[in-house]
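Feature request disguised as a bug: please show the residue count (1198) next to EML-like second beta-propeller domain-containing protein in the output. Example input:
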Amino acid sequence: MAASQIVAEPHFIFGMRPGVANNICYIDEQTVIFPAGNNCVRYNLDEQSQKFIPGLEKSLGLQSLALSPDRRYLAVSEQGEKGMISVYDLQKEHNKKRKVLTGGDIAVQEFVCMAFSHDSKYLISQSGAPDWTLFYWAWQKQKVLATLITGGPTNPVYQVSINPLDNTQICVSGHGVFRLIQYAKGSLKQFNAQKKKVNNYLSHDWMSEKRVIAGTEMGQLLVFESGELRWEMNVMTKTSTQDPERTAEKNQEAAVASQPPRVTVIKAYSKGFVCSAGPGTVFLFEKMEDKDGYRKCSEIRIPPDPYSNDPSQAEQQEFVSLCISPSEETLTGSTNRGQLYSIALSSAEIGKQGDQAQFDFLTESFHSDTITGLSICYCKSIVATCSLDRSVRIWNFETNSLEVYKEFQEQAFSIALHPTGLFILVGFCDKLRLLNLLINDIRTFMEFNVRGCRECAFSNGGHLFAAVNGTVIHIYSTITFENVRNLKGHNGKVRSIIWSDDDSRLVSCGMDGAVYEWNTLTTKRESDCVLKTCMYTSIAISPDAKIVFAVGTDCTLKEIQDHHIVKDVPAEDVTYTAVAFSLSGRMLFTGTSSGTVRVMKYPLPTHKDWIEYQGHAAPITKMVITFDDQFLLTVAEDGCLVVWKIIDQERHGLKRDKAIYYSEEILITKTDLEDKNQNMLELKTRVEELKVENQFQLRLKGMDHEKEVKEMTDKFMQEIESLKTKYQVLKAEKEKMESDHKESMERVMERNTKEKLDLESTSLQNLMLEYERYQELQHKSQKMQEEYERQLQITEERKAQALEEHTQQYESRLKENLFKLKESEDKAQQQQKEYEEMIRQIEEDADREILDIRAKYERVLKEEKDTSLQLKDETGIMRKKFSSLQREIGDKNLETEKLRLEHQKLQGVIKSLEKDIVGLKREIHERDETIQDKEKCNYDMRMKNSDLEKFKFVLEYKINELKKQIEPRENSIIEMREQIQKMEDELGQFKRKNTQLELTITELKLKLKVTDEDKRKEMQRVRNMKTLVQRFKTDLHHCVEFIQEPKKLKDSICELYSSYVQSDVVDMVGGDSDIQKEYSRQRDHLEKTVANFKRKMARDSEIHHEERLRIIRENTSLINENQELIRELHHIKSHAPLASMTSAPVTSVTVLSSSGESEEIIQRQRVEIDRLRQEVLVHGDTHLVQSPSTLKLPPLLS
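Example output, currently without the count:
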């Protein structure tokens, strides 16, 4: 069955990669994402399941993560020959990849940190050494909007972020780096730069639109507002509200006494922020309501590890990343040792009251260093691992959980799990130990004097186990614990051993390039295969033990059968580090030095025919397949254990030959069992006592509650009776007041009705007078409109006549110019040689002119930049003033609201005491004030009427003055357009030169690429020859052994000749030189052809440039003549009889553009006609809008 029908997909990963920036994020309340191996893991906390986003092929590992604020997009940066950023859509199926971003022309090997904008449209990324360039992306368009160098070799950058409310503001922090950067006009520039104390800024976060809080290596928290230091404190001291200078002095004194902890991460949330405070500690800070600062409200610590040899080691971990769930209910963090911790913030609130709040593991405890050993057993679904972090862990690959673990004093190099799953054999640096697996502990049972055991394995029956000690393999009895056999024969260290199914044979491989098959009963070697050029690292055997698969340092997979290597499968650009063969004999798995897993079919292919999967971020050290062929387990130097599900193309598990049933029995000591039973009895007795005590307390509380209820009932009944009496009294008073109010209202209504009738009669008379005036004004407006239309008709007739005259005149001139142009072309052909001699002088003049123009515009650009900076400073000052005024307005509004409430209370008291008398007086007073207001309003209307008449006269005068100023402004506009056209021509010349330079650079790059390819091929040929020479030397050495036997010597020499001297090799050597000569000849011919084409193109471009300059000069002279004619026409029309009536239209109509084209003249005339019509309509509408009133309008001006 082909390997293409067998698929291995990641099922679960135990581990986490700590070296990734921002390596823990919440997608939602139940899902977190973190890096593990060369994958991003989406872990569901409720279902305890994982989904994976694999890294890119040939990636050197993940570098940083960034989650968009809407939690939809995930950006992943990966290190490699060319650093790349992949953006994934987490809402799409299978986490669809949206975009891939690279540094483009800038050589970037890695992006150390990233951040999204608040609307998820923009992405910033910081590249690493040596350039430390900040990129600002419109990532959906894969476009770099701007770049800026922010760090240096001695000033690395650790974190970048974007303002949560403004996409254009960026904060960058690092070693001696804290910069606020503004994106404007297509570039990134630092703003509000002030001299700051040099600190190692490890972290920062935005608290608001203007406020940023930063943490330093010396344990300081610094709050900046608009780039200015506003607040400072030491993370281990109380909040300071003094000025920054005094606070800094106190912090320096405290730092001398004790070294403060590092603030490696800060995370803001709605109530304040959380930050790390040295090893194993996180502080919660809340914003103070009465002061502009923060106070420390809670402390959270990592608890000691009870299973560790040194429990305090867990508290020495430093947090490298923190995140808060969307509902702000859970805080999760990752440490520098690859552990994940979480805590409910409600538990942190409890910690405020004095109890110590502690983190819990988010999932399980992981390895923090290279995993050196891996083993499974037949009777249980568990897997055992050991690591250089001195821990031994037992995992369950079906429930995806950690069963038990323990840390020791020495490093563990190898591990073997007994087939029953009740014992493990661990090789430490000092001894080999046999340990019992208890329900919650791992205890030493027996020790063996085998130092530095790098490999050990139980036999399939479990009655024997083998342990490697350098070059010797010791076999011990599991029953008597005696050393029953020793296998000696390797000249190098043994790297891997494996038992056959019937335990009768043992296969080993070593650094000496030997693969031996041993008989475990006689301790004799039954077969061997030695290849001294390869140091073997791992082996696997077929179920019948007839075929051995071995991998080593020569980058090939070898199939060994009957003492010979029958097939080699090259690994191409990686090295095979581990191999595993399924019990069904259908598939072979290999692990590589890049951390990938390859699936191959069996029989092995002769060419590349495998499927490769991204798994780990470091070389794989061990791999094993479970006994039912359902799972593949791999471990690597990155400290991760990956469980792979082996399935077919239809995503179903492989069919099992027979069912495997796992046992659930565990070991427990008699002492532990007795202690557990005794504790159960004590707890049961305590439960009974608590039941009786609680029942008694409930009865006492019930009696007390009944008494309190009776007392409260009597009290409330008395209050109800008193309230009823008060209600009756108030009701009588209310009825009396309603009757009095009704009588007063009737009197007021009568008086108001009479006044209303008087006002209506007066208003009607005024309305009639104003209507008569309106009719008169409308009649005048109609006459005025007819006069304007007559003037417009006269203007159009004159315009048409002038346009026809100009058209005829310009057509005649155009014919003359065309004739002159033809003559000039003839002369140009004759004077071509003269122009070629003048090219050098013209180029020198042009260069000098370009330098002058460049200097001029650089001065202008500098002046504009200075003006822009001055305006930005003024804007910052105005913003500060505006914010202070806003605060003052808010304070005044609060005071006003308080006064208003007090005033309402006083008004209520007055109404309740003197309601009748004061009410009547207030009504009389209000009526008097109403009459006075109406009189005052009438007087104000008269004054406004006179002011409006004066204002209208002034406006009409200003309109006439502005009309006279239009003509010089339009002339200046024409001059500016001509200047802009010249600048555009110069810009075109610069673009052509840039294009020519880019072509030259492209050609040089192609040559460099061809040279590099030739170099690579030559180096590969040298390596191949070295390998061939080495093999020839080895074979020649074997021939020397038959120096005393001529016949055998002759046969071996013939075999050597047939192996290394072949006819096709001789032919190929001769052909290679001819091919190389032909290739060189063709390349020289192509280079000469390209050079000729370039020279010809340069000559053509120079001729075209000269011709274009000549035509531009002629067009300039024609434009000047057109302008002279226009001025003459304007002078003639200004002295016409109707010049006084049409002065304003003619002034605007006769202003022609520099192009002199008739279509533009017609368009300008149409615009002027529309403007005059609009002015007529405005005059008419002005009179129509005037409402009938006592206003006196001035006479209309003609």
